[in-house]
Amino acid sequence: MIAEWKKIEKKQFAPIYLIIGTEDYIINETKKRLVANILDTEDTDFNYANFDLDETAIEQVIEEAETIPFFGDRRLIVASNPSFLTTEKTKSKIEHRTARFEDYLNEPVDYSILVIIARVEKLDERKKLTKLLKKQATIVDAKRPNDAELRKWIQSAIKNNDFSMEIPAIERLMELTGGQLTTAMNELDKLMLYKLESREISVADVESLVVRSLEQNIFLLLDKMIALDISGALSIYYDLLKQKEEPIKILALIASQFRLLTQIKLLEKQGFSQQQVAQKLKVHPFRVKIGARQAKSFSYEQLTATLERLAEMDFEMKTGYGDKAQRLEWFLFSLQDQRVK
């Protein structure tokens, strides 16, 4: 659990919080804890305000924060999307007069809790206002966790809810949810609800209950092909067709995965670690982990040859040459011949 959550639950509040990061689970759980511990149910409507800074000027937010609470002891003011603190371009036409915000940061009121939520990797550190905010605020890091951190999040949730879950089941949950904390925790909630009586979650439970995204099905399809499990690969492919997924879209995702395998293969040859590869390619480390495992079954030449064939198939499909579903089916049959012998 994040250290600041424990303080919030002990009602040890900071006057200003800055939540930085793109992980929705951490952002939403922090907000939930603040609401539950700061506000009484009956005065939430009076003492809680939520603003989008792409639509509301920061001085309006500060005015709200300086308003004395109605019927309760404290007010909770949440303001999201502070684009004026980032390098990101925005279509918002709102002009923020930040002088009043600076004054508030230097001397916040004692009856309001102000929460600034920035769903970005980092703020613009060159700005004087950014430096002041980071100095005065209590920072909650909402970055996406790495493998080890994600495993700890899952294990902590299991322990706190008095469940047991074997390590292979945890690993499979991480794999099927693509290393995404928010998705993993949502699926874990579903698993715990399903196994409420026994309170034990197995690999079989994860396999049968966790919803696979289209991308995850593509990963699994390639795993089946690499293992020469033709019937397993075709079963996944036919399931995707039954779900009304277009063959051209499936082909595009397969091509995207092979492109990733090719890049991973090349960068690993150059001595880059998986973490460095993820940073260089700007993809989730979990995708690189799965991709590195899959890439071992192909040479660099075989991967580039497969990419060329996929490009030809894409052209053929888009120009109406042959039956789309059947052409991709034959590709799956032939992929085993591309493996390293």
Automatic annotation (TrEMBL):
GO terms for molecular function: DNA binding; DNA-directed DNA polymerase activity. Residues 17-143 form the DNA polymerase III delta N-terminal domain. SUPFAM superfamilies: P-loop containing nucleoside triphosphate hydrolases, post-AAA+ oligomerization domain-like. GO terms for cellular component: DNA polymerase III complex. Its EC number is 2.7.7.7. InterPro entries: DNA_pol3_clamp-load_cplx_C, DNA_pol3_delta-like_C, DNA_pol3_delta_N, DNA_polIII_delta, P-loop_NTPase. Residues 215-334 form the DNA polymerase III delta subunit-like C-terminal domain. It is an enzyme of class 2 (transferase). The keyword Chaperone does not apply. The keyword Nucleotidyltransferase applies. One of its GO terms (biological process) is DNA-templated DNA replication. Keywords: DNA replication, DNA-directed DNA polymerase, Nucleotidyltransferase, Transferase. It comes from the Bacteria. It catalyses: DNA(n) + a 2'-deoxyribonucleoside 5'-triphosphate = DNA(n+1) + diphosphate. NCBIfam families: holA. Belongs to the DNA polymerase HolA subunit family. This is DNA polymerase III subunit delta. The lineage of its organism: Bacteria, Bacillati, Bacillota, Bacilli, Bacillales.
